[in-house]
Amino acid sequence: MLVDGSVQSHWACQDPATPACPLSRPSLGSACTQNGLFCNYGGCSVPGGTAVQCEGNLWQDAQVACAAAQ
Fold first, then answer.
1. pLDDT of residue 10
2. What are the phi and psi torsion angles at 61 (to 5°)?
3. For a designed S-S bond to 44, which of 26, 51, 62, 66 qualifies (C-beta 3.0 to 4.6 A apart)?
4. Which of 63, 56, 52 is nearest to 27 (CA)?
5. For 39, left (φ over 0), alpha (ψ -120 to 50), or beta?
6. Residues 35, 55: contact at Cβ < 8 Å?
7. pLDDT at 11
8. What is the pTM of this model?
């Protein structure tokens, strides 16, 4: 089996850009203290990115509206 050495994988991370959000995406169901806080971790810009929101003092999966590709 030949492997093409020109293809390299890399990590793609997204800073949530909201000061109150943790730098690392919190695990769903883990505790949070600021109900209503929405944190977007590359939901539209990073493959596999997601968004979370603090609801009922737990981090929950959140929907994010992405702009349509032109």
1. 61
2. -65, 140
3. 66
4. 52
5. beta
6. yes
7. 62
8. 0.74
Residues in contact with 42: Cβ distance below 8 Å, sequence separation at least 6, in sequence order: 12, 13, 14, 48, 49, 50
Question: What is the bridge-based pairing of β-strands 58-62 and 38-41?
Answer: unpaired
Tokens of 55: 């609801």
Place of tokens 């590709």: 69
pLDDT of residue 44: 87
Mean pLDDT of 18-40: 95
Contact assessment for residue 40 and residue 14, using Cβ atoms and an 8 Å cutoff: yes
Q: For 43-61, what is each residue's pLDDT tens digit?
A: 888 888 899 999 999 999 9
H or E element, residue 6: none
- The count of other CB atoms within 10 Å of the CB of residue 12 is 11
Give the amino acid at 49. Answer: G
